[in-house]
Design brief:
The protein is mostly helical. About 60% of the residues lie in helices and about 10% in strands. A hairpin with a 2-residue loop joins strand 2 and strand 3.
Amino acid sequence: MEAYSFDELVSAISYDFQRFACSSYESMELSRMERASSPATSWPLLKSYYSGFFGAHAILNSVGLGELYLNAALVQNMVDFAALTKVPVPKIVSGSFTYKVVDAGPKTGLLILQGAGGQGVHDGFWRRLCNHLSDLLDAYVDHGGPNPGEILGEVDKIQTMVRDTSRRGVWLSNTRNEINYQHLYDCWLPNTRASKCRDLSFEPIYESSEALGKLDSVTGDLERFLLVSRCFSSLCSEIVEYYVNSHGGNSPVARRWSRLKLLLAA
C-alpha cells in the first residue's frame, strides 16, 4: 500500500508509539505504587505484564512495525476507496494484520500482511513479536552491526522466555491467563504465608540490560513473569529517552513523556 503522504504515515505510527509507550510507563509505575501501599500482588503483577505488552507494541512501532485490527467496516472503507481510485486490491477479510514500513525507491508505503494465528490476541501477538525479533536480528547482522553474537544471545534469551515451547501456547500470555482467570500462584488475597508473591520486587527497572541479566538466575515462574515483562517495558522507556535526548525536549513526544513522568511523580 503506497503512502500518499510520508508525513501522514509517520504521524499515524508516531501516535501509536506514543500511546503504547506512555501506557507502558504508567502501568509499570502503578504496579509499584499499588504494591507499596497494600499487600496485594495480583493486580500489580498483571499491570506489570501489561507494561511489557504495551512496551513491546511501542518497540515494534519504533522500527516501523506494528499491529492492525481491521473490522468489517474498515475493510469496506478500503475496498470502496480502492474502487474509487481504480486501484486493484486483493480480497481483504477482517481480522488481525501486521504492517511494515517499506522504502520503495522514491516512495514509501506499508506492507500489510494477515497476522499469523494464535490462541487469542495476546498469544498471537507474542508469537509475531518473536518472529519480528528474528527478522530484525537478521537485518542487524546483514548491515554489519557491532557485537552480533551478543545481540543474538540476548534475542534468543528473550524469545525463549516469552515462548517456552515446553508448554502449550505462549508461556508469557498463558501465565497471565493463569493469574487473571484461573487465580493460580496464590496471588490473590487472602493468600497463604507460603505465597511466592510476597517476595517479589515491583520496583521499576529502567535498563533492559539489568532485567535481562537478572533472568539468568531466575528459578520461579512469578519472578520470571515479572522480569520478562520488565524487559520490554524498560527497553521501551530507553527508546523514548534516547529519542528525547536526541531530538530535544520540545518535540510532541518529549513534551508528552515529560508530562507523564511529572504526573506520576506527584
